[in-house]
Amino acid sequence: MNRKLFTSESVTEGHPDKLCDQISDAVLDAILAQDPMGRVACECATTTGVVWIMGEISTSCYVDIPKIARQVITDVGYTLETGFDGNTCAVLAAIDEQSPDIAMGVDKSLEDKACGANSAGTGAGDQGLMFGYACDETPELMPLPISLAHALAKQLTLVRKNGALPYLRPDGKTQVTVEYDDDEQDNPLRVDTIVVSSQHSADVSLDQIRADVLKHVIRPIVPANLLDDNTVFYVNPTGRFVVGGPQGDSGLTGRKIIVDTYGGYARHGGGAFSGKDPTKVDRSAAYAARHVAKNIVAAGLAKRCEVQLAYAIGVAKPVSVRIDTFGTSAIPEADISALVQQLFDLRPTAIIQRFDLRRPIYRQLAALGHVGRTDIDLPWEALDIVDELKKHA
After folding, report:
1. How far apart, in whole angstroms, are the C-alpha atoms of residue 167 and residue 117?
2. What is the dihedral sign for C-alpha 76, 236, 368, 56?
3. Most CB within 10 Å of its CB: which of 174, 223, 299, 360?
4. Are 340 and 307 in contact (CB under 8 A)?
5. What is the pLDDT of residues 247-271, one digit of tens each?
6. How many Å apart are CA 227 and CA 28, to the nearest integer?
7. What's the CA gap between 371 and 59, in Å, rounded?
8. CA distances from 386 to 140, 299, 391 (A)
9. pLDDT per residue over 33-44, tens digit each?
10. pLDDT averaged over the chain?
């Protein structure tokens, strides 16, 4: 048996980078709630005692950006006792309008300009490439390492907020290493290593933290059949994690793009999601690519599937669509690619309409992943094209 290891990480909602993602998406949600056609590119940065919010926003409404930022920070759990306080930190905003040069390419696609029509809809908000992925390792068709890492991060926040482990603080990270059988199409065999690090108050011992995290976080989440006597557990391996959050490390929107997607198991085009309205294909097309890949795997056409989309700014139709099933397809990949072209409309306007993306749904995505979610109903996770794929295949 040829065995190999693969590791993915996740972070809690209180991680400084994720805090910034949530602020950016909360601003986006507030604008879309009043102005669904608003154009938003909102970035955030934070460090000890301060939050900066910057970007380009074109909208017909007014939102109180500092108030939104403070609400997110306090919702996450940053108050005076944590070393960073949403009620007293400085909030600085520098917002400009979207460039008219970009807007003219997005408002009307190159295809429609050429024919004087309005059938193709908006053009892509930028050039770029996006990837979507699915595999049959888990019920949600996600790689097992990132699925477990997200579940551990979610549990870490839950036991903090429900009072089970009241000494925990918002900042935290998880990491899971899974051992695979490479001879059996990457069949997951066992969990080799689990790492959990959580910010905590100064009045608790490391021994108590380790015992509590094992009992209340790890054991309830990781299936017992994946653990064995050789599984290694690291809980707060530095020995102390009192100073955390923005006081301990700076944060920045878009710096956890692998956590947001597939944990490194699939390729990534490099574009972040948070703070961007759906005309930005970094976001909307990545969701569409996941939708395509997930339906292909759910239809039984492949055990693993990666979809690459690429766009040119101002052009509606993708410049390329690529399907890779890593040798696991039940029918030729060329046939799957033809089905994708036939059954999925991957122009930005079509994606926005299909998933109803001009809604304030984004802050809930800014922690614990944008794909593979089972705790919220996301339209790009729907298996609504499975029957069509089966019929045509």
Report:
1. 61
2. positive
3. 174
4. yes
5. 999 999 999 999 999 999 999 999 9
6. 41
7. 28
8. 14, 5, 9
9. 999 999 999 999
10. 94
Residue type, 69: A
Burial profile 134-172: b = 16 or more Cβ within 10 angstroms, e = fewer: bbbbbeebbbbbbbbbbbbbbbbbebbeeeebeebbbbb
How far out from the chain centre does Cα 178 lie?
21
Beta-carbon contacts of 84 under 8 Å, excluding residues fewer than 6 positions away, are 48, 49, 73, 78, 245, 246, 247
Residues 392, 343 contacting (CB under 8 angstroms): yes
Measured CA to CA, the distance from residue 293 to residue 134 in angstroms comes to 5
